[in-house]
Amino acid sequence: MFKSIYFVLVALILFAAPETSFSQWVKIFKENNSSRILLDIYFLPANPDYGWICGKDARVLRTTDRGQTWIESKIDYNKHGEAGFFESIIFLNPYVGYVSGPSGLYKSTDGGATWKLCLDEYVWGCYFVNEVYGVATGGGCSDSQQIFYLTTDGGVTWTNQIYNESNTGMTDLYLTSTTGLGLAVSSGNIWISYDGGKNWSVRNSTGNNDWHEELSFKGNTFILPYSTGCHGGNGKGGVRFSLDGGFTFRDTYLEASMFGSFVISDSVGWVCGRNNTVVQTKDAGFTWESYNCGLKVEDDMDDIYFIDDTTGFVVGLGIYKYQLPKKHKAKIKVIDSTLCDNTPLILEAEGDYEYYDWNGFPGFKQKEVKQSGTYILSVYNMECDTIISDTITLNLKTPAKLNISDLSEAKCVGDTILLNPDLTNVVSYSWSDNFAEVSRKIFTDTDLTLVVEDTSGCLQEFNFSYKFIPLPEVKFKDYKSNACRNEPVILEAEIENATTYNWYNRKKRLISNSPTLEVQNGEEYYIVAENSLGCSSVSDTIAISYEYIENQVSIIPLEGSNNIDLGEMEVLSPLSFTIEVNNTSDQEFVLEEAFMETNTCFSIPKSQFPLVIAANSTAELTVNFYCADYGELKDKLILRDRCDYDSIEVAIERLFYSFDANTKCEVPVKVTNVKMKYPRITHSHLSQNKGKITTYLEYISEKDESVLLSVYNTLGRKLFEVEPDNIIINKSGDFSFCEISAEIDMTQYSDGLYFLYISIGSEYVVLNLTNFK
Q1: Predicted local distance difference test score (pLDDT) of residue 572
Q2: Is residue 200 helix, strand or coil?
């Protein structure tokens, strides 16, 4: 099949977007709970493969591969202030280090895997010159006491110096040696020590008494982040930059509280803080540029650390690693074209990236193109990557369209569909079944293909597939075509998916919209069923006829009696007797069955049927009797002919069971059974709570009985009647098992003896009532 490419490439233009260098932060450790925020990060200067992070929730994270992976451990802390709160961490070698904060100061000798308490005090920052000599500090804002704790034996023992400067909270410090210069910072002040941290004094002010959480300097370059106020808790703040060793500062307000800082060189430094703020200065604090690309908006930052100029980390709600910005040059390639089969043109970006933008809107690596126009592709992995876009302009031809009748309308079996294609811009055509004309009518389910060649030389295939909606199929359940006089006949049509039903006889349409119809006349009937799509079907005609005849067979009763009385007999004694059945018609009659109404003790052997009775003749029918019950038993023998039935009552007045026996005194006796009378009371009792008495009664009955409860005094005078509170009746066969309860209020009567008379039908019971209030 000939195919031609359906697009013209007018222009292919590459242009470069401005190459702005953004910092790029990649989150390498996720943390979404502010109660687990990370607060300080430190790498071992002599071997930066080793690094540590501390924070809230008593956590310490450590790395041995320059921050590629991190392992977490927990400190078993003593609670001080906020639980598990650690603000400062330092290590002297890969094994020995210290962590401090409001929850105390702890020491590790295994690289941060386990920790032991050294100082059980509320402190903030700490600094150690070597494995055993160090200083920790804290206090100040609330109690105006600044405390420096000193240890010379690795935290086994401590001494302290207390100072009293108003409204300044101690945070961070640095020592050059065990005997030399030391610097510390508090809210608005820099402190100095000349003897290795044993004694301290305020050297100079940094400005307002704002919270400085970290002391960061290199040579004479000092960077102090601040949060306004002594405690720094109001969410506002900035950074102070000094080039003269921290005596004078250039103050820059950054709106959000700043907590962490790091000095790279005399003119370059970093600061981080609230509201995902990370800023950098390259001109000694004159200007600060935001470098927060890649940081989540909701992530607060608390500390920042750079191993070298290009390897840095910022911590807060998680750990972010700094990466240099990357350049991504987009390139568009055409991997498929709009061909004669009318498939869309496919544009694809070369290379794999996280994000693809087509004409400024997010998309995928591939883009389907169906219209002429200019398409611009941008690719990047991070929003702050440098992007060079690619542009392609396309002029697409439009293939020939084939207009045809709408095939969406539902058609029923028996309807017709007209296929009439519009062959504008078509030079030739052919149907898959070799039909010669363009237009054609469709009467049955079809699956056709029309192949056309348009003026551009392309061959296109159009498929026409259609199924007609079938008519409802009508069937009838079994029905009686010959009925007796006054016997209704039920006609029920079995139809799938029908919604409308119209019944007819030869005379008129009947009022019915149901698949079921009751008829009582001998006529011909049919139904027209219709589904929800309007497709209808007509059933076959049903003929119903009625026979108006009298009974052909009847039971000949005993002389002078309208029933059969078997008298009395002993229980478990079998009996058989016969009755005569008379055929009163002039035709032979076949009796298919006879039955007893209750079918308990009387039975009719089935082997007698079918019983053929000649015209105007009689035949005998055998009935068997066997029963273990006793008392008066009655049943009814019923014969069914074609249009009616005849019956006769069969009765035994009394069944009994008797036997002879001797007493212990050798006196002969004759025993026989009698029928138990009902109702029969089986249980009764009373319970009393002061002047209120509850009665409970159980009885068995063969029928519904009236229940009466009456209270009498000892003179036989009825005082009042009582209505039952609760009646429970459980049926089992011919019997009812009943429970009755009632509450009798005797509080208004004097103490003494009374009687409760309970009558149930013909039965009664009398219970004594003793009234004690």
Answers
A1: 66
A2: coil
Q: What tokens does 481 get?
A: 């075509």
Alpha carbon distance 235, 230 (integer Å): 12
680 CB contacts (<8 Å, ≥6 apart)?
A: 699, 700, 701, 763
Our CA angle for 381, 382, 384, nearest 5°, is 135
Question: Which distant-in-sequence residues (6+ apart) come within 8 Å of 710 by Cβ?
Answer: 718, 720, 721, 722, 756, 757, 759
483: which strand partners?
Answer: 546
How many Å apart are CA 580 and CA 622, to the nearest integer? Answer: 9
Residue showing tokens 């005379």: 507
Three-state SS across 403-434? ECCCCCCCCECCCCEEECCECCCEEEEEECCC
CA nearest 409: which of 470, 468, 497, 471? 468
* pLDDT tens-digit map of 193-228: 999 999 999 999 999 999 999 999 999 999 999 999
**Could you report the per-residue pLDDT of 670-686, keeping only the tens digit for each?**
655 555 567 777 778 78
| Amino acid letter for position 291 | Y
Burial of 370 (0-12, 13-18, 19+ CB in 10 A): exposed
Angle among Cα 764, 767, 768 to the nearest 5 degrees reads: 155
687 CB-near residues (< 8 Å, 6+ apart): 693, 694, 696
- Half-sphere exposure (CA, 13 Å, Cβ side) for 734? 3
Query: Which residues are registered as beta bridge partners of 140?
Result: none
Rounded (5°) CA angle 601-604-607: 140
Closest CA to 197 of 154, 146, 135, 246: 135
